[in-house]
Amino acid sequence: MKTIGIVGLGIMGSGIANNFLKNGYTVYVWNRSLAQRERFQKKGAIALGNPREVAERADIVFEVTAHDQSSRQVWLEKNGILAGANKKTVLIANATLSVEWIDRLIQECQKRELQFLDMPMTGGRVGAETGQLVLLVGGDEKLLDKIKPDLKAIAAKVFYFGPAGHGIRYKLILNALQAVHMVGFGEAIRTAQAAKMNLKRVSEALIDRPGGVITALAWQDYQSEPNPINFSIEWITKDLTYAKQSTKNLDLPLLEAVLKQYQRAVKKGLGKKDWARINNLPAKK
Q1: At what angle do helices 212-223 and 199-207 cross, to 10 degrees?
Q2: Which of 28, 63, 102, 198 is 20 to 30 A from 171, comparing alpha carbons?
Q3: If DSSP codes are grouped into helix, strand and coil, which group holds residue 208?
């Protein structure tokens, strides 16, 4: 059985680590928070002092950080992942990152002749906790096939998109589409309110149409904010910003309009709120 390394024990990283432990894997972990490392040590993981030590010991290393800045640090610093990995180590970037940074990271791995896959995830907190994530992969397909049996511990589905970097590109496309749908639902509800319609009946009919999964989530969270949240406003704003940066030469008015709405919510101090709460903001002309 392969050994597993997890760098980053936030919502997603914690879920992944827990499921590998439940499936009998030896799991090495690192997180900036000492308290979080100690919490996982009590669960049976082996807590280490830095990402380099994780990469030195694990067969497969999953990097599950928050954004470009934290990702760069855990990969490139002197005690980072790249400093500890060898040619047999399978390195995986699970965070939703910018195209610019993922392409740089791919180059850094290629220079060192290291095995690398970009593998952002969808499924949120619940998917991570239950081992039902959907993994979106770019990189060497033969390498992916070698580790697919291990991925069953954390994922219900694995989609392969092509060369390294294509997993991230797809994730940004997906998040942009879902954000457009989320904000579109808010406009539909405000239109129904203005027409003095029964919102419960409107929502039930909308959920029954194509795209009902996001609509159902939006309606549920419109009525009351989930606790814990599924996905924060600040994180979808980050992902939409990365998506816009990767499409500088394209005319994408829907993406730009939705990004502006989420940026407005962040400016109002709502960044930590669930991303569906965008629809509870007062309409602004």
Answers
A1: 150
A2: 28
A3: coil
Residues 40-56: tens digit of each pLDDT: 999 999 999 999 999 99
Q: What is the largest CA-CA distance in the chain?
A: 64
d(CA 228, CA 247): 32
Of 112, 25, 105, 107, nearest to 65 (Cα)?
A: 105
Which tokens go with 86? 């060898």
Tokens, residue 212? 């009902």
State the Cα–Cα distance between residues 148 and 152, nearest whole angstrom: 7
Contact 96, 168 (CB under 8 A): yes
pTM of the model: 0.89
What fold does the segment set 169-280 form as a domain? N-(1-d-carboxylethyl)-l-norvaline Dehydrogenase; domain 2 (1.10.1040)
Taking phi first (over 0 means left), then psi (-120 to 50 degrees means alpha), and beta for anything else, what does residue 126 get?
alpha
Per-residue model confidence as pLDDT tens digits over 183-220: 999 989 989 999 999 999 999 998 888 777 777 878 88
